[in-house]
Amino acid sequence: MEKKEWYLEYEIQKNRPGLLGDISSLLGMLAINIVTINGVDEGRRGLLMLAKDDNQIKRLESILNTMDTIKLIKIREPKLRDRLAIRHGRYIQRDADDKKTFRFVRNELGVLVDFMAELFKQEGHKLIGIRGMPRVGKTESVVAASVCANKRWLFVSSTLLKQTVRNQLIEDEYNSNNLFILDGIVSRRASERHWQLVREIMRLPAVKVVEHPDYFVQNSEYTLDDFDYIIELRNGADEEITYDVVDKNNLFSGSDFGDFDF
Question: How far apart are the first and last CA of the chain?
């Protein structure tokens, strides 16, 4: 029987020498293999394990619940956040009220890129929004993650190199393995031909990333409920994401760019 992967997380109640050895010995006696172990929070450890059947895990859970040196937090099939916590030694911050919103700061770009790359690898339609102030690293992170995921990225609307709006794709760009990047602020002033292209792309079983999703939904038939994930990127944890400068100066107005057919 092929072994199944599990995630175990526990909080240390009484830290003493040999505690990790005791846990490792217990897993060994139950014929459960440790794949990876790391600290995932202050006073907490996480482990990825391999077990042949669920009974091994039930016995492990029963024994761990009797130990006074640790408190069992999680034992389950690993989720994406679990895998990233093991890999980076910390959990990704998640909004307590909106479970699909994840928060990062600029010094966590490596974690962000890794997180998005794992999302990009998933097959089928996926709509991801990313919020953040100018020059915080949104577009660069999306491009880096697409490289990690071995995806070809296509700018449908963008200001990375120049202000660009596309009205059509060439034949080989209608590919579900491509990653489509849009800027909600740029697209809001675009023509109906551009929005028709956006609708075509939305029907593709592919990953789409929308920068400034709040502007995107203001000017389209889509809503924030249509997004599978919302990512917020800040320079610091206390930074407020605001578009006052954009609104005040009427940036990206129709006179700022032309529509491009290519």
Answer: 53
